[in-house]
């Protein structure tokens, strides 16, 4: 089996992103192909995890402002259920954080309060819980933690 590569997300893979969204976020308003396209059109940073030519995960980040006041927001991370637990999510997160670090940006994200695996991964990468957003995910009404990672100086 080939190794997973994290590369700039290809527009030709947006349909696959939407398919994965349907599987991963079925109870919570999954993103459409058009939503992913709009994210790219706005210039947000999106990467894909590729196993050969097949997209098995995706992640996106928005960066606003300039150092020392830049902020970044993780918009999404999704990994094909067949490849969860293999480090794909960590590789995608590291790619996003690398971009945030280039801008010396404090990074924020929301995560379901019941997603212990994701919360642990984020904590392992320097995030801390800083707030609660009741009924953040719709239509399920699931709560979300807001998490923050302070800006990292890159040399």
From TrEMBL:
Major subcellular location class: cytoplasm
Subcellular location(s) per record: Cytoplasm
GO cellular component: ribosome
Domain N-acetyltransferase: 4-152
Keyword Transferase appears in the UniProt entry: yes
Keyword set, alphabetical order: Acyltransferase, Cytoplasm, Ribonucleoprotein, Ribosomal protein, Transferase
Domain of life assignment: Bacteria
Its EC number(s): 2.3.1.266
Record Pfam families: Acetyltransf_1
Xref: InterPro entries: AcTrfase_RimI/Ard1, Acyl_CoA_acyltransferase, GNAT_dom, YpeA/RimI_acetyltransf
GO-annotated molecular function: protein-N-terminal-alanine acetyltransferase activity
Enzyme class at the top of the EC tree: transferase
Family: Belongs to the acetyltransferase family. RimI subfamily.
Protein role: Acetylates the N-terminal alanine of ribosomal protein bS18.
Name of the protein: [Ribosomal protein bS18]-alanine N-acetyltransferase
Recorded name of the encoding gene: rimI
């Amino acid at each position: 089996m080939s190794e997973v590569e994290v590369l700039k997300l290809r527009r030709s893979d947006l349909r696959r992103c939407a398919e994965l969204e349907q599987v991963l976020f079925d109870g919570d308003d999954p993103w459409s192909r058009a939503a992913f396209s709009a994210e790219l059109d706005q210039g947000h940073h999106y990467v894909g995890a590729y196993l050969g030519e097949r997209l098995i995960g995706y992640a996106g980040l928005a960066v606003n402002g300039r150092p020392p006041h830049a902020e970044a927001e993780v918009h999404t991370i999704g990994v094909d259920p067949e490849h969860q637990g293999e480090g794909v999510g960590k590789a995608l997160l590291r790619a996003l954080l690398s971009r945030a670090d280039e801008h010396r940006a404090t990074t924020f994200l929301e995560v379901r309060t019941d997603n212990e695996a994701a919360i642990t991964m984020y904590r392992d990468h320097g995030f801390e819980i800083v707030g609660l957003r009741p009924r953040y995910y719709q239509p399920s009404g699931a709560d979300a933690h807001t998490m923050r990672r302070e800006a990292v100086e890159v040399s």
